[in-house]
Amino acid sequence: MGVTRLKRKARRNKQTAAKRQVSMQQLNRKPVIKKIDAEAIKASFGTAPVKEAEAPAPAVEETKVEAVVEETPVAEAEKVEEVVAEAEEAAEATEAAEESEEPAADEEETKEEA
Questions:
Q1: Could you give phi then psi for residue 48, rounded to 5 degrees?
Q2: What is the DSSP-derived secondary structure letter of residue 53?
Q3: CA gap 65, 40 in Å, rounded
Q4: CA 7, 11, 13, 14 torsion-angle sign
């Protein structure tokens, strides 16, 4: 009796073996190291190149300076006074609201008694 070969299966086995070999070769590759001037690279990190886009940046910093100027101790004292005044107004408003609600409560009691 003769031996029959499965051609498709043999082709698949050869393909998987070839893929495995190629992947191992790719993983083992190392980059080609050329002569590099390490001092020049270190020097480039020390100084950043000046870009044209950085020119408008001082205008933004000026606004930050103005914001800091507003937060001086005098400005903070004024803010505290404003908050205290608002709190006093709120307290007076609640007292006035309570006084106006008390007669209404008395009327409700009289209605329940009747």
A1: -85, 140
A2: G
A3: 38
A4: positive
pTM above 0.70, yes or no: no
Amino acid at 62: E
| Both structure tokens of 22 | 């190629």
DSSP secondary structure string for all residues of the chain? -PPP--HHHHHHHHHHHHHHHHHHHHHH--PPPPP--HHHHHHHHHSPPPPGGGTTHHHHHHHHHHHHHHTSHHHHHHHHHHHHHHHHHHHHHHHHHHHHHHHHHHHHHHHHH-
- Read off the pLDDT of residues 57-104 as tens digits, 9 standing for 90 and up: 555 555 555 555 555 666 777 777 888 888 888 888 888 777 776 555
Element (H, E) at 10: helix 7-28
